[in-house]
Structure formats: structure tokens, C-alpha cells
Specification:
globular
């Protein structure tokens, strides 16, 4: 039996920006349900929804106030249940985001903890810690938030006196949960059951490496060992996932966990993918890799080497809701990506980025394992780099003092239909504009404009996903490198399938006798044979 998730193409839906069904300028479940036929025709196997739970939206839904309900912004629990059923009717599986490292400061547990007073059991579910220094005026340790600034906020008690500090590795509105507490463990096990009973096919686990903290919450220090930080990758986290795996395996339907795991070494990463833990995890090394043949081959080799010993399928992803869209990244002089320095304002050559993005899409879909498509990838959408400061909503912009412009530029509402005020994101007669403005030149990128255009991104993605399903599903999760010269990445899969990438600028002749299955760019045919242009990818049959 071949498990579906070992080779799946999974489409990421950032609900707020996918499609607006009720005209309030916000994407919602009604909008998703209307476009399930589009997603089926695209050719993906599953949908991953970023958080749709009740939330104040301090961090785009990753601050959850109620894990068992849908935020009214998106719809209702009954609508979610219908969406899951309808997706299944279309042959699409459904994964939902689970945010276990932290909740919202509006969650009933945190509200109870603040109100309960010093020493209360309710505070033990979080990390409430006395401060250091005179009168406890200094944070308990030197940890810094991923969003900038210190990772601690001090509360004021009901009587007006200064209280302890609470830990938040992200925004202050996202207090970290204490996973040493048995009630936290029990609560999330029940949350898993809640959604599994409603038919979800799995969970994407946010900050999967961060749940457990090192005993005593020690300082990081001035020159920390990045492989041994006290707030991530602690051994105790693996016990959590082993218990969760037992729950998941108790349900039929081949359900899965996918981890968001950002760690510095392949060895640390692979431990999360042992047979009794997570099924797969995002391959951020590949996402961050430069458009360079040597670098790409190196990261592919290291990915396969890390996954092989634990028997897990690799995954390949080019963009998501936290990163710079790869059309823009690949048009820069430096095509690599670093979450710590996104270089949001770096200039980008749009035409060059589009050529490379098309080639990269074929490369990812040819590799063994699973592939992720972030909404809008199939339309060739670029990053929006010129949003005015007053429209930015990502908390990283404020927390960083404006030095990090945040992630709003990759979360712009999708363009569906040309000739309408919101490019079809909202229905005609909508009562509000899209929650973030769409660039005027996106009218040329709408889904309806690309429909039927043989040279469009949408046509390429549909063709690649269909061919991938027909030719590559079920093949061994291996490849054989083929030496084709500098600036190229070339490998064979089973059944005579070959992928050839030309990352250079010069044209490259195709091997004699090969049959072209698909190309990211027009090929040149001469009396001497067929050549592929620079920054392109072809799929070949060598049989």
C-alpha cells in the first residue's frame, strides 16, 4: 500500500486572502467552498488551511482563543463541517493548522490565569515567572521573541501591584503554554479528537519544535550554541508527538501530521520524523536555497540523506504565508532566503523571477516525495513590496520597530477575475474593499485571464500536477544524478523519467532521442536538435 501523503501535492489556503464569499473584504469558508472545483481541476490532492479558529487576529489567526470553533470572520463550525465533506466529495483531503505552542491572551485559560491571582493553579498552565532585579523589574531571562523584542511581558495584579512576567516567544498576545502541565497535554489530545471526528485528514503543527522548554528556563547567553537553545528542540517534545501519533493511528483514513520544524541541523530535523512521531515536515532548507545548480543539488542530496534513515518522505516547498514569494526572490541578485533577514525591499527583476519560478515549480514536482503549493503560486504572483506603512498588519512590523516590514506582502488577496473592483476576490456588490489592497497590474494575473492561455503559470501548474500524478505517483523515493555540465541539475527517476534544469543563462542542447514531456519555457528546434533556454526546466522521457 502506498500512503497518499508520501507523494501528495498539498495546496496551502490562507483563508483570509483566498476568496471572500460574503462581500466583507475578508476571505472566508464560503469563498473556499465556491472554488473547490478550481482546486480539483488544479490537480492537488489535499488542502491545508491556516488557522480558522476563533481569534482576535493579533497574528493572523495564530493566536487562538477557541480551538473548537470557527472565527466568525470566516464562518461557522457547521460551514467548516460542510466544507470538509464537500472537499472529500471533490477528492480533496483536508489538513487544519494546530497551534499548540501558544494560545491567545483572550483564551479563557489565560483570562482565568490573570484574574486568579498569585500562586493559582490556573497560572501553572502558562509560564508565569517572577522577575529579576530590584522589585522584579527585569525579565526572568534573556530570551528574545521571534517577532522582535523581549519574550516576556509583566502583568499587573487586580489590586494594581506589579505581578510576574509571562513568556511569549511570539507576540505578547500569544502566551506560551506550559507543556509540562498535564492539563495542557489532555486539552490538546481532546482537540485532536474533536477535529478528527469531524473528518479532517490531518494537522499541520505550528512551531512543532518549540513546545517543550529547558528546565529552569536558563539564559541563552551572548554566544549560544544554536543546536542547543533552551526554548526549542528539547527532548520532551518527542514524547508529546508519540502520544499524539497513537491517537491519530486509532482513526481510519490514513491521517497525518505535518510539522513546521525550523532547526539548524538535518539530524535534529530527522528526529521529528521517526516512525512513531510526525509523518512529514516542511523542508525549509530547500525553500531558502539560492537559484544555483550546485546549491540546489546539495540541498536535494542532504534532504534525501536526512529522510532516508527514518523512512520519511521528503517535502518540497517554494513559498508560504511567512516567506517572500519566490517569483520575487528568484528575481533578485541574491536569490537565497533567510527568515532572519528577508531583505523585503531588495529590488527584483520580475521577468527573470518568473522564468526561474516556472523552472523551480517543475523541479519541485519532479523530486521524490510530497510537494506544497502556496495559494497564488499557480498564478505566478509576486511579493507586494510597496504596501504603505499604515496598512501593514503583521505584528512583526511593530515589534521590530519598523525594521522588519512583516509578511503582509505575501498575503495579498488573490486575483480571480479581471474587470472587477477586487479582481474577483469579493463578489460583485461587496460592502468593503479587500482587507489588503491588490496591485493594479495583477489584473493581468487573474485566474480567468490565465485560463486557456498555453503559456500561463496556471496552465503549467495544471499540466505538471497531472503529469506528476500519472508518471511519478508510486515510484521509488529515489533519484539518480546525471552529469550534464556546469549550471545544470539533472536526475532520473524510474520508468525513464528525467528532469533537467538549466540555471545558467546560455542555451543547453537536449539529449538526443529524448521525448519532451513538459517544459517551463519555449524550446528552440533547429537542424542540429532541440535546445532549452537558460533558467528553465524540462521533463523528458528517456525510454
Amino acid at each position: 500500500m502506498t500512503h497518499w501523503w508520501r507523494h501528495a501535492a498539498i495546496y496551502q489556503i490562507y483563508v483570509r486572502s483566498f476568496a471572500d464569499g460574503n462581500g466583507d473584504g475578508m476571505g472566508d469558508l464560503a469563498g473556499v467552498r465556491d472554488r473547490l472545483p478550481y482546486l480539483r481541476e488544479l490537480g492537488v490532492d489535499a488542502l491545508w488551511f491556516t488557522p480558522w479558529n476563533t481569534s482576535p487576529m493579533a497574528d493572523g489567526g495564530y493566536d487562538v482563543a477557541d480551538y473548537r470553533d470557527i472565527d466568525p470572520l470566516f464562518g461557522t463550525l457547521a460551514e467548516a463541517e460542510r466544507l470538509i465533506e464537500e472537499a472529500h466529495d471533490h477528492g480533496l483531503r483536508v489538513l487544519v493548522d494546530l497551534v499548540p505552542n501558544h494560545c491567545s491572551d483572550q483564551h479563557i485559560w489565560f483570562q482565568e490565569a490573570v484574574a486568579a491571582g498569585p500562586g493559582s493553579p490556573a497560572r501553572e498552565r502558562f509560564w508565569f515567572v517572577p522577575g529579576r532585579g530590584e522589585d522584579g523589574n527585569e525579565p526572568p531571562n534573556d530570551w528574545q521573541s521571534y517577532f522582535g523584542g523581549r519574550a516576556w511581558t509583566r502583568i499587573t495584579e487586580a489590586d494594581g501591584t506589579p505581578g510576574p512576567w509571562y513568556l511569549h516567544m511570539f507576540a505578547p498576545q500569544q502566551p506560551d503554554l506550559n507543556w509540562e502541565h498535564p492539563e495542557v497535554r489532555a486539552e490538546f489530545e481532546d482537540i485532536l479528537h474533536f477535529w478528527l471526528r469531524r473528518g479532517v485528514d490531518g494537522f499541520r503543527i505550528d512551531v512543532a519544535h518549540g513546545l517543550a522548554k529547558k528546565a529552569g528556563l536558563p539564559d541563552v547567553g551572548h554566544a549560544p550554541d544554536v543546536t542547543d537553545l533552551p526554548y526549542q528542540d528539547c527532548d520532551e517534545v518527542h514524547d508529546i508527538y508519540r502520544s499524539w501519533r497513537k491517537i491519530l493511528d486509532g482513526y481510519d483514513g490514513d491521517r497525518i501530521f505535518v510539522g513546521e520544524v525550523w532547526l539548524p541541523t538535518a539530524e535534529q530535523f530527522a528526529r521529528y520524523l521517526r516512525p512513531d512521531e510526525l509523518h512529514s515536515a516542511f523542508n525549509f532548507d530547500f525553500l531558502c536555497c539560492a537559484w544555483d545548480a550546485t546549491a540546489l543539488r546539495g540541498v536535494i542530496d542532504s534532504t534525501l540523506a536526512a529522510h532516508g534513515p527514518v523512512g520519511a518522505p521528503p517535502t518540497w516547498v517554494l513559498s508560504n504565508h511567512d516567506t517572500i514569494r519566490h517569483v520575487t526572490r528568484y528575481g533578485r541578485e541574491d536569490t537565497s532566503f533567510d527568515m532572519g533577514d528577508k531583505r523585503l525591499t531588495d529590488p527584483s527583476d520580475r521577468a527573470l523571477g518568473r522564468r526561474r519560478a516556472r523552472a523551480a515549480a517543475l523541479l519541485t514536482m519532479a523530486l521524490p516525495g510530497g510537494v506544497y503549493v502556496y495559494q497564488g503560486d499557480e498564478l505566478g504572483l509576486p511579493e507586494v513590496q510597496d504596501l504603505p506603512d499604515e496598512l501593514l498588519q503583521d505584528p512583526t512590523f511593530v515589534r521590530s520597530g519598523g525594521t522588519d516590514r512583516g509578511r503582509d506582502g505575501c498575503r495579498i488577496p488573490l486575483p480571480w477575475r479581471s474587470g472587477s473592483d477586487s479582481l474577483g476576490f469579493s463578489p460583485d456588490g461587496a460592502t468593503a474593499d479587500p482587507w489588503l489592497p491588490q496591485p493594479g497590474d495583477w489584473a493581468a494575473l487573474t485566474a480567468d485571464t490565465q485560463e486557456g492561455d498555453p503559456e500561463s503559470f496556471l496552465t503549467l501548474y495544471r499540466a505538471a500536477l497531472a503529469l506528476r500524478r500519472a508518471r511519478l505517483t508510486g515510484l521509488p523515493e529515489t533519484l539518480s544524478w546525471v552529469e550534464t555540465g556546469p549550471g545544470t541539475v539533472c536526475f532520473d527517476r524510474s520508468d525513464g523519467f528525467r528532469c533537467l534544469v538549466n540555471t545558467g543563462a546560455a542555451a543547453l542542447p537536449l539529449p538526443a532521442g529524448a521525448t519532451v514531456l513538459l517544459s517551463s519555457a519555449p524550446l528552440e528546434r533547429t537542424a542540429d536538435g532541440v535546445t532549452m533556454p537558460g533558467d528553465s526546466c524540462v521533463w523528458l522521457s528517456m525510454a
